[in-house]
Fold this protein.
Amino acid sequence: MRRQSSVGIPRALSYYTFYPMWREFFKVLGLKVIVSLPTNRKILDDGIRETVNDACIPIKVFHGHVLNLAGRVDYIFIPRLVSADGKSTFCPKFLGLPDMVRHAGMPLPQLIDIRFNCGRFPAGGILQFFFGVAFTMGIKNPITIFQAAIRAVLKDHQYRRLMQMGLTPLKALAMLDQNLASKDGLVERDNPEEKNKMAIALLGYPYAVFDPYISADIYEKLVKLGVSVITFEQIPPKIMRQFSRVLPQNFFWYYSNRVCWAGLYLLRAKNKVDGIIHLTAFGCGPDAMVDKTLELEAKRAGLPFLSLSIDEHTGEGGVQTRLEAFIDMLQARKSKIKVAGY
């Protein structure tokens, strides 16, 4: 009996955006999908050792996840992500990621690094991408590949709908695994109890915000502090695209635009949020511009803004203290506004 081939997917970077689609495609093709372990100290240390010094922490972590898969799989899936909307590109390090990994000197199996360059996702270019991935692994049957691609895109739609309903990527993934059998974790925004909570926009790239280790579990910390948390994944793309016309010039980068558009929408939507937290990775060039833009827009809108920078030295205690101070300030501000009768 022929052994089932396995493909490894690093639990970092594009994992939080595209993993359900990647996994469905490989599963329909009959491949075994293996994901690296959740980020931990060893994975981070391994990534730091294998990566160039000036890389941001998400890139360092990614290398650690690749090393975690090495020796356990036949292929490691690292697509060369160029564009998902035909307009903006991914960060330059995304574009060069397969080369960075390949030349880091790690002992690796074959990398699948097909170029991902689509029009408005998931339209033009997606089939070409999936056929290229399948051909790389020696799968040639066009009907099988086409069926796998369709199933993958449908799974991606499911995943995005769940996030727009208020689920985090990790909870949406768990729900997909249960075949939508439970609604646990959904944020019912119309629930009176939810409406009475303080609302904070937690903006940042998903691979920073939703990796509990490198973000010091900031999302769950806010939830435990009694805050209703809104991220850009919960905002329909149609609404966000409307705000692409607000700035004189949009950013060149896919995630940067989404963070900025979400921020603009929430700052202009009346009583939508009480404050904004921008989680940024130290040393990230695109983020430096996004951070300043959000800060200026928040100042213009008269809403409190907190910028939190993370790197490999970030401690949970420091993050907790800053969050508590920010929420205390928001509560004091809210009480003052209420007393003044605004």
